[in-house]
Amino acid sequence: MIAVGFLLLVVLGISIVGVAYIAARPQWAAYIYLATLPFVGGIDRGAIIPLVRPSEAIQVGLTAAVLAGGLFRFFRGEPIHIRLTRLDRTIIVMAALSSIWPLFWLFARNRVPSGNDFFETLILWRLAALYALFRGAVRTPAQLRKCMWILLWSAGFLAVIAILDSLGIYKMGGIWTPSITSDSAGRGGAISKPRGAPCAGRSIASGATLAIAIVGNGRPPRVS
């Protein structure tokens, strides 16, 4: 019992130090998210933390740290500039419509929305919040280049694990077990052959991560 309490105190202390560091250097929120996403993005909701995915919990924690740093600088008297661009307004409208429209049609068809329906209406809001996090945290071309390098290295490591998984040399099980339990023809049963989806849960998700990393690093860095 004492050991568990000591471990919790250590974790709490590390968390406080991490939050303070990210609050002072918000670009590290982007670095940490990019480094961890390829490996936690495929973990199902509730597998580690009730009701949420680990990637969502990481995003909430990083966003809270960045906002805490912004509030501290605001109360200290530093000027805070918030500028909404045409893209920002478009994302807000799209997220709002994606939340209202599906629920409207469910009510129009005399159906009561379930918990999953409400969760699905929040997807674009979460992505919009992620966009706002990166837009506020990454402010210079040097920081953007570092983001691209982190994404490339983490995706490269994911590619190595995917190759080993496909060859049957090394497989990641447990919370990284693919959530799909039927084959491409829709038949039930476990998938026996390697699928190249070691961390992302689905092989197409692993491929999408690698494609984003390659395409993103092929474009010149731009910061608005």
Shape: globular
Give the low-pLDDT segments: 181-194
Radius of gyration: 20 Å
Report the helical percentage: 55-70%
Largest sheet: none
Average of per-residue pLDDT values: 77
Q: What is the end-to-end distance? A: 51 Å
Instruction: Kindly give the count of domains.
Output: 3
Element order, helices and strands?
HHHHHHHH
Number of helices: 8
How many runs of DSSP E, i.e. beta strands? 0
Name the structural class.
mainly alpha
> How much of the residues is beta strand, in percent?
under 5%
Short description:
With 224 residues, the chain is mainly α. It has 8 helices and no strands.
Detail the topology: elements first, then pairings.
Layout lengths: L1 H23 L2 H14 L13 H22 L10 H23 L6 H7 L1 H15 L3 H27 L35 H15 L7
Give a structural overview.
With 224 residues, the chain is mainly α. It folds into three domains: 1-80, no CATH class; 81-138; 140-224, no CATH class. It has eight helices and no strands. The chain has helices at 2-24, 27-40, 54-75, 86-108, 115-121, 123-137, 141-167, 203-217. α2 runs antiparallel to α3 (54-75), α4 runs antiparallel to α5 (115-121) and α7 packs antiparallel against α8 (203-217). The protein starts with a helix and ends in a 7-residue tail after the last helix.
